[in-house]
Amino acid sequence: MSGPQELHISFRHLDTDYDINLQKGGKSAHSVEINGISYAVLGEKEKLDTACEILNSISLDSISTAEDLHGRLSVLKNISFPTQKTDDIGIKTLKPTSLAPVLELPSRNIAKLIRMVKNIPSDADIQALCRECLAQNNNNVNLALASLRTAFYQAGAGKVSGKITDMLAYEASDRNVDEIRAFGRKRTVDVIQFLKTLPQTVNGAIDLTKMKKIGQGGTQDVFVLKYGPFPFVIKVNRASLGMKKNERLEKYKTDNAAYKALHGSFGDHCTVEQLLLRDVSDASGTKKAIISVADFEVGFQKDSKLGLQDSDFNWNEVTVVKHLDAYEGMLKSVFFSENAPSFDLSTLEAMNPKVAKIANLIREEPDFGHALKEFLTKFKEYFNKTGQYLDIAGRDNIIFFKDDERWTFKLGTVIKVETAKKFEDSLNWLHNGSKKTEESENHMGMLTYCFNWTKALNTLAMMVGMEKVIVDPNVVTMWSDLEKAEITGKPSNPQRFLNILQAVETDPANKLLERFEAIGVNPEKEADSLLAILSESPSPNKKLVLANYLHQVLPKVPNGVIADDPDAFKFCSVRFHIALAIEKIPGGKALALECYEEVMKDPRGPHQEVRKAMSELS
To answer: What backbone phi and psi angles, to 5 degrees, belong to 193?
Structure first.
């Protein structure tokens, strides 16, 4: 393509206006190559260097009109155009007729596309053609499609097929196909099309208010199209909504790398999931967020589904203090490598009905035991390689289910911030005095999660006849620190707990408060112990006495509190569990509603779950 003799184009870049003439073969100190031919760049002298830099940053092949050049420039950032149309000078004869896309002879690059069009027997050749065309057009799909149509016409190959336009969309989505790599080549177009079907606001944000919310975990909300053919869900990372731009980007990069490592270890057992950076809009407005597109995993709907959750391996504190020696022996058998008591599954089953259920399943369905062993083996290899824990605190983050009558497992969103290194840092913080700082809550959360996950995984390993999955000598070294902090699940003062428990079990309901006063119960310091006893108390009357006592004496959220003051909300969690314990017993409804109303003041609280509970009680 020899190209026009002269082009004129106006545009704005970074608040500077450019009015440029391009003359074929003209003499000038400033020039660019268009269709392989030198064009003089004419205009205001002080702007010409920058104008040439801008023009040379785009592909200048297959240019036949000023509109072509306008289109190439439009893909650049910080470029805008005046409202008036750009002018073509002396090129009216170059306008395409109704019989052909262009009348010019093909340039070297168009000639290359024509040769490729004549030889596309395989998908690989189609992909190569699309990539070449996108490279010539600076990854602009519309310009690339126009070039393809030209090449097809001049090659006598008819129209561009739907298969090729799909491949073009695969190779260059509106956000770059590399971003959708997790789903593999065959499904990438489906994901891109799914993203394009999502409801959007006028500003282009994903409109969550027009999607169906189907779940809420500890860190994210899950949405699906109310009426849509695509088997995908959108997950919105709630923490990312309040992050600064650099923090969000860093988390996005870190999580992407972590999921790549996870897929490398667990393969098809991972639910396919791709993290993206997008704007989302909900009832509170538009925000930037980390979202992910994930397969809608059919295993979650199976009747056989069994979620792996660390809470199933916790003993309630009433059982702990009544069987303290058995509990300590069980813990040490799971965590200690040397001088550890033998693992006694029968005692564990007797003390923990949820563990007993899993043990029965292992005995009755050996295939379940094989699937469990495969998961633990893969996790052990993965953990030794990465030091990354998997989140089994969230409901159904890891599930086991029957697929064609055989047990298998799937991992969902299991990557969080917990790592072996961070666990070690928190252990050192605890050992060195656990001074209260802004990071105190994070340290305590890290200690609790990693300890409970290790306990659950090592218990499962020993139930299927494996060695321990996680061996951490730091835990053994700092065992007494963990006990004092009540991380191990044992009260820091078991005898004190037992005294309060005996008062609840032996005294009549109408004498309980007098007994508490006599033994000097401190409700703020001993709230967790009282709550544990309340949850396990067999008497409805005593439950209500304890619930009323705690609700009345514990501090409530003060008026005008700032949202980032965690101390103001520290008893909201207690009230949440009070409500759960009494909402279904006679006379407990009104008090449960009062407790839930207090929980709603905590910005971190489980608001969706509370609203549902309040709605059912009202």
So the answer is: -65, -40
